[in-house]
Each structure stands twice: as structure tokens, then as C-alpha cells.
């Protein structure tokens, strides 16, 4: 009987082990479908949003996502695995509407095809066997839907990956091209030249840009219109076209100046007449004052007669905390730098809601006359400070059904033009407008021209981040725009405004890091050593 019980116990053990293995195998098979993730980050930025989870509702056909990534890159960095995890989450929620594959171009001899698709190789440094070498790697995503496709040529982080995927998938499904029309008001500047960084940044965000000449047509197919400067240049013929575009529901971004800065005559400021584009913007609800904003929170510059940087209050450094956190554009505002900016007066026109996007600090003031911009004569900057000090609005967002600037006025006539301008619509369609009181002109007195939207010193400056947020708000639904605001966010280290307080903070941090922390570590080591000796002595005495 004893032998039989032993035999039965062994048999039961084998059966239990077999059943356990079978259950584990079933759990593993089901885990691909039945799974969950707990995201404890502040903005739930490590899991996709409900908008992305329900994207399959708008997909009659299957979306094919291909991640072209070099195995060498996967062995060196963790981000390819993070990218794959996010795309796989799309697949899990898509009910079979999204497929995903990873491909190594070098293994499949796809280098030529990668160039054709728009995936340039990235050259990175690699260390192997104590030798440094440079290798070409790929990390890009191809999205295909029916006979249409879109590419994300560079994917080296996941901060905006969900937004990029969701917005591009929906654009393909809706057959809606993310095309922006750009009117450059300054004839000396071009998209390919002075605005190359802006163009590259918007292209990386998934937009295509089309330059519109001052005498050209505004296509109906564009998702938004960007007007960069031109307050004293754009004529009534083009203003009518812009106004009609907005009346039809078109979205627009205006970067304007009410005061022209003439660098050829020693940085001379010339107020512009309140007409044309400035008057049209005012009729929509955002009027530019004929003044320059100055702020104690400003950028430093180096002049040809100074060895050290000096704060130049005309170059305003907008802090992240001065953005409107309630608006989708600036909900994750990282700050901005403006050069000779003009303050805005905003108002709610009939059927239009006006909201500030960002402002100066409360240490700002105005200059309305005697515009001396020379940093070597800073004594003249504060001549009107006592009567004008306070917070100034520098950018605003308008939404609603805008009153037409040309309603009740005769249509403009251009001499020599054969065609007649089309009539305005009977009723205005809902639209959106962003107005910034800075057309972009600036000048570094030691390094030359700089620009609000094309700063050669920082290709990924907050100005361009703000511009992409504006483009998103103009061309997308708010639910899609909310995805970008969930991205991990790191603010700028510029909270301390007062120069004396900043230097004191630097000194305190230096003392803490150089002296206090080593002293604490040394003291802890000595205390542990003394305690260990006392314990050893007590143990020895007890024996």
C-alpha cells in the first residue's frame, strides 16, 4: 500500500505540473489580447489616449505601419523598443484595423528604397573593441492606407509619437492633406532661405508648406494660412482674398508688427499707419498698439563696445508661467523669445471669442515715442515706464464667426488685372485666428540678424514649438491637439527673474554641491565607522 501511495503521489505531481504548464501557456496566449497597463505619469504620457484607442472607428480599411529600424541602433539605445511598444498598443486596440512590422533596411537591402520613400540614413558614432567608428542607421515610420502613405523620417524619441501617428492616420483616412500656405510679407525673405528652420520644424511635425506670393491665389485645400509680416506691404487685393478665405472657414496665423524697424538707418523705429492688415486684424478682435513692449525679463546681448552680455529689454523672454494654461495652444507652453514686440488689445467681437495666449511679466512697460533702440543708451528706455508698467498681451487666439472687414465696402480693383474678385459668402463659417505682435525682425548687435521664427542659434527653440502648437490648433480638432499636450514636459530653467536672486541661487547651489554634499557624505562615513568600532568593542567585551 505504501508503494502504491508513493506511485500515486508521483503521478499526481506529474499531472499537476502538466496542468500548471498548460495554464501558463494559455495565459501567455491570452496575454496578447487580455492585458492592461498602469500609467502613473502626470499626464498619462506613457499610454495612448482614448482618441487613439478609438481610431479604428474611422478606418474602413486596414492601416499598415512599418518601422524601419537598424538592429545596430536597437542594440545601442532603448528608444526603438519604446517606439515599438507604443505602436503595438495601437495594434491591440484596433480590432485588426492596424498592422505593424519592424524591418531592418540593411538586412533586406532597402537602402535605395529608403531614400526614395524619404528616409535618409542617420550617421552615429559607435564604440566597438575600444575603437570609434561611424555607422549609418535608420529609425523612421511608414504609414500606408489604401493607395496613400505618409512618413515620419526621424523617430528618436516618443514625446510626440502618439500625436504624429494619430494625426497622420486620420489625415490619410479623411484624405485631408496637412498643407499650410505661407505668405511672407518681407520680399527679402523666403521659405527656403530665412525661414528654413521653421520649414524643417513644421515638416518634421507632418506639415507641408506652400509659398503664396503677394499677388497669388489662396488654395481652398490648405489647412491653414500663415501670414508672416507685411502689415505695410500687403495691398487691398490680397487682403480681400485673405478676408474671404477666413469668411469661408479658413484658419489663419498672423505674425505682425505695428512699428517697422529700419536697420539701415541705425535701428530706427517707424510707426505704421493703422490701416490695411493691421486694421483688418483689429476688426477681428486683435488690435496692435503703436508701441514697443519692454520687459525686465529679457534676453542678454553683446554689443560691439561691451565685453559682457547686457540685458536688452526690447528682446522679451516670455516665461512658461506667463502662458495661458487653459488654452490648447499654450497648455504646455515652454516660453518664447520676441524681438521688438508690439502689445495687443484684444476684445470679443460679435460672435468671436478672444483669449490671450501669452503675456509679458508684470515688470513690463511701453515705449510709445522717441524710439531710441541703441543698447548703449539704455538710460532712455525707461522714460515712459512709470505710467505704462504692467502685464502686456503679446499673442492671442480668436475663434468664432468673424465679421468681414470688406462687408459693405467696394471690392478692390487691381490695375491691369483681367479677373474680378469673387463675392464674399452670405454668412461667415466658423474659423480660428492666431495673432502675435511680432513679425520676427530682430538684430543681434554683435552677430547680425535674428528672427522670431527663424533663430539660427537654436533650431528647436520654443518659438517653433509654439508655432507647431498654433498650426495644430488651426488645422485639427481639439481632441487631437490634446494628445500633444500629454507629452512629457521639461520647462526652462528661468524661474528666478531678479539678477541678484539668481546669482545668490547659483552661489547656494555651488556651496551645496561642492562643499555641503561631500561634507555630509564624509560625516556619514565617519559616523558609521565610529559606530562599527563601538559595536565591535562591545561585542568583544561581552565575550
In round numbers, the mean pLDDT is 84
Unreliable runs: 443-449
Q: What best-fitting shape do the alpha-carbon axes yield?
A: globular
Query: What's the name of the CATH homologous superfamily of the largest domain?
Result: Class I glutamine amidotransferase (GATase) domain
CATH topology grouping of the largest domain: Rossmann fold
CATH class type of the largest domain? Alpha Beta
CATH hierarchy: architecture of the largest domain: 3-Layer(aba) Sandwich
Please give the domain count.
2
Helical fraction equals 25-40%
Quickly count the helices.
Answer: 13
Secondary structure elements and pairings:
Layout: H1 2-31, H2 50-53, E1 63-69, H3 71-76, H4 79-93, E2 98-103, H5 111-117, E3 122-128, E4 131-137, E5 139-145, E6 148-152, H6 161-173, E7 179-184, H7 196-204, E8 208-211, E9 224-228, H8 236-247, E10 252-255, E11 259-262, E12 268-271, H9 277-284, E13 286-288, E14 292-295, E15 298-301, E16 310-318, E17 336-339, E18 344-346, E19 352-359, E20 364-367, H10 385-388, E21 393-400, E22 431-436, E23 441-444, E24 448-451, H11 462-475, H12 478-484, H13 499-542
Parallel strand pairs: 1-2, 7-8, 7-9, 9-10, 10-22
Antiparallel strand pairs: 1-5, 3-4, 5-6, 11-12, 13-18, 14-20, 15-16, 16-17, 19-21, 21-22, 23-24
Helix pairs in contact: 6-12, 7-11
